């Protein structure tokens, strides 16, 4: 493969340049320069709505249009995707009108081992036409009951790992052990930041999850030990290129959803920088495949 080093340097320097420009009045202008879609790439990029948790649905839609990101992993936060059916319908109408597609919902918590509670959450996603539930902290004992609903609704169930603080799911490897032998639609949402903090090789985790990988929450960290060290993607220690290569190798068909959790009152500079870097890496992998 030719020019590998120079290309890698170019990707990082381009992202850094984008970030340097992404201040105040330049933020939205820079976003408008991004490619209109990421459909040509083997890596499909989306947005976790939690990134904009301090903003209304209307404001978030405006941000997504500026970013040219039209694939959303929505959460019941603010008015992004309310659980109430009537309010949910209004939200879905707004997204359809803006050309935004919902591919996942979450994180949704399954704290009751009860049919009615579980069914209400599957119905919530069915109404929205969502194919992946990103699930937080379901008890191992609840999984057989959840499996029945996965089969009934044909909705994938992606258990989200939350790192060392999580009582059950530190790492995607914990999820894989628990769901072994269950319906293959039950699997992982790999949160790459929490995975690294759990001491797990995130690239290895992608390979081990394989067809049970149903969603990815993307972020970057300056320190593998510090939850509060999050930075824009490309500025930290995350092996983004190797992760994307692993996703391509396992033929991952889902989305890599940016979950930018810092600067909640002014996330756009970091969000723009993160997408610039991720799109640059994805584009370079496409070039490499053609060589």
Account of the 3D structure:
The structure is a single chain. The model is unreliable at 1-37 (pLDDT under 50). Helix content is 44%, strand content 16%. It starts with a helix and ends with a helix. Helix 2 packs across helix 3 and helix 3 (57-67) packs parallel to helix 4 (85-98). The chain has an eight-stranded parallel barrel with strand order 1-2-3-4-5-6-7-10, surrounded by four helices. With 291 residues, the chain is of the alpha/beta class. The chain has eleven helices and ten strands. It has helices at residues 4-21, 26-32, 57-67, 85-98, 115-127, 143-153, 172-179, 192-197, 202-209, 240-249, 268-290; strands at 44-48, 71-74, 101-109, 132-136, 156-160, 186-191, 213-218, 220-221, 230-231, 255-258. Helix 7 (172-179) links the parallel strand 5 and strand 6.
Describe the structure using short key phrases.
291 residues, eight-stranded parallel beta barrel, alpha/beta, two-stranded antiparallel sheet
For the largest beta sheet, what order do the strands appear in spatially? Answer: 1-2-3-4-5-6-7-10
Largest sheet: number of strands, sense, barrel closure: 8 strands, parallel, barrel
Shape: globular
Structural class: alpha/beta
Mean pLDDT: 88
Count of helices?
A: 11
Task: Give me the Rg, rounded.
Answer: 18 Å
Outline the low-pLDDT stretches.
Answer: 1-37
The span between the termini is 7 Å
Residue fraction in strands: 15-25%
| Helix and strand pattern | HHEHEHEHEHEHEHHEEEHEH
Number of DSSP E strands: 10
As a percent range, the share of helical residues equals 40-55%
